[in-house]
UniProtKB/TrEMBL annotation:
<feature type="domain" description="Phage terminase large subunit N-terminal">
    <location>
        <begin position="27"/>
        <end position="225"/>
    </location>
</feature>
<protein>
    <submittedName>
        <fullName>PBSX family phage terminase large subunit</fullName>
    </submittedName>
</protein>
<dbReference type="InterPro" id="IPR006437">
    <property type="entry name" value="Phage_terminase_lsu"/>
</dbReference>
<dbReference type="InterPro" id="IPR027417">
    <property type="entry name" value="P-loop_NTPase"/>
</dbReference>
<dbReference type="Pfam" id="PF17288">
    <property type="entry name" value="Terminase_3C"/>
</dbReference>
<feature type="domain" description="Phage terminase large subunit C-terminal">
    <location>
        <begin position="255"/>
        <end position="390"/>
    </location>
</feature>
<dbReference type="InterPro" id="IPR035413">
    <property type="entry name" value="Terminase_L_C"/>
</dbReference>
<dbReference type="InterPro" id="IPR052380">
    <property type="entry name" value="Viral_DNA_packaging_terminase"/>
</dbReference>
<dbReference type="Pfam" id="PF04466">
    <property type="entry name" value="Terminase_3"/>
</dbReference>
<dbReference type="InterPro" id="IPR035412">
    <property type="entry name" value="Terminase_L_N"/>
</dbReference>
Length: 408
């Protein structure tokens, strides 16, 4: 099959820093660094390259939560297939139970699974390679179980686990496992947005503005250095299995987006407790696509009261026409954050994007590294949606009164 395919143009669509790693055969290929570095794009390209040049693969692609794979790793792999001009060689399918696969004529298959579905994971056998996307979401035990699955001899394929992630906490098990203790079977590559020649200039401007607004945030998020973020807004929340069955208040919040994710979040409030669940979180999604998805996956959302970004009246109108009970949100960032922080916060374990934003959402800092009353406008899509749902108080309108003392 490889003899009929021209891959000579592969370096033209690959960032230079990654090109040598097409041929890396280490047991562990650890790709980490800052946002916008093109890590996931390259991993997708390498997977397609291996399927085209080898045979009989069962490539397992995993994340902590299965539903996040559709709009991340799966889309990246399909994008790589199309950019290589080999779309005609692959078949994409999804079973009625949501199991996603991509197949190649040389008896190779890419399987997508979430660690949240233990029964589906049990059925995966004879894996030849693994990609762990957003590896920082996993526990050490999760990784160990995957590592044990990659075993046995294979005549044509080398066994490799690719881990891709952005480092956040210097106490994370990944740092201990691969950085504090050197592994002779691991190859580690650090990259940043400066290694990505395909990145758009506007995103570069946003990342580099962090040098001024929060230098620590820039070091960790943009440069991908290990550390502890300064100025985190939400520092205390707990993970739960699911939303409660009933509560005093039940709403959803919606932050529109396209280039950045559109985020729809379901919240329940009971006394001093705020419960949060991720319903929809996707980049490059239209309002109609979001409506169609939510009607299929969370139809009950349509009947409860929702609050959406007031800056998008046409999209709110589209939601109402589709049967959603939605009104304009009140935009008061500081007061809204204070309101959210006044509760005991609980987030469902499947809300991986919300959890990620909680771990990154930070205040701007002054020159002395003291937090200002303004958050950094990055990693805030779910945060905005939560605030819209929770904060419903209109500013107090104080009418001027006549000063009668002036007449005496």
């Amino acid at each position: 099959m490889s003899a009929r395919i021209d891959l000579s143009g592969l370096p033209n669509i690959t960032n230079d820093v990654y090109v040598p790693y097409y041929y890396n055969v280490s047991r562990y290929l650890v790709l980490y660094g800052g946002a916008g570095s093109g890590k996931s794009v390259f991993v997708a390209q390498k997977i397609v390259f291996r399927l085209l040049t080898e045979s009989n693969h069962r490539f397992l692609v995993v994340r902590k939560v299965e539903k996040t794979l559709r709009d991340s790793a799966r889309d990246e792999i399909i994008g790589a297939i199309k950019s290589m001009g080999v779309d005609h060689l692959f078949h994409y399918s999804e079973s009625p139970t949501g199991e996603m696969t991509i197949k190649c004529p040389n008896n190779s298959t890419i399987i997508f699974r979430g660690l949240d579905n233990k029964e589906k994971m049990k059925s995966i056998k004879d894996v030849t390679a693994i990609w762990i996307e957003e590896a920082s979401e996993l526990t050490l035990d999760d990784f160990t179980q995957l590592d044990l699955r990659l075993r046995g001899e294979h005549l044509t394929n080398y066994k490799q686990i690719i881990l891709s992630f952005n480092p956040i906490s210097s106490t994370h098990w990944l740092k201990v496992r691969f950085f504090d203790n050197k592994d002779a079977n691991a190859t580690i590559l650090h990259t940043t947005y400066m290694d990505n020649r395909f990145i758009d200039s506007e995103y570069v401007r946003i990342l580099e503005s962090l040098k001024i607004t929060n230098k620590t945030y820039y070091d960790i998020y943009a440069l991908g250095k290990w550390g502890v973020l300064k100025g985190l807004i939400y520092t205390d929340y707990k993970i739960i299995d699911s939303l409660p069955k009933d509560a005093e208040i039940h709403r959803y919040g919606l932050d529109f987006g396209f280039n950045h994710p559109m985020a729809l979040t379901e919240i329940m409030i009971d006394g001093n407790n705020l419960y949060i669940d991720e319903v929809f979180y996707r980049s490059e999604a239209t309002t109609s696509e979001m409506i169609r998805t939510v009607k299929q996956t969370h139809p009950h959302i349509m009947s409860i009261l929702g609050r959406a970004d007031a800056a998008e009246p046409d999209r709110i109108k589209e939601l109402r026409s589709a049967g959603f009970n939605v009104t304009k949100a009140i935009k008061n960032v500081a007061a809204g954050i204070d309101k959210v922080k006044s509760y005991n916060i609980y987030v469902t374990k499947n809300s991986t994007n919300i959890i990620n934003e909680f771990n990154l959402y930070s205040w701007k800092l002054d020159k002395a590294d003291n937090p200002l009353d303004e958050p950094i406008k990055l990693n805030d899509d779910a945060m905005d949606s939560i605030r819209y749902a929770v904060f419903t108080e209109k500013p107090l309108q104080i009418k001027p009164t006549l000063n009668t003392h002036a007449f005496f």
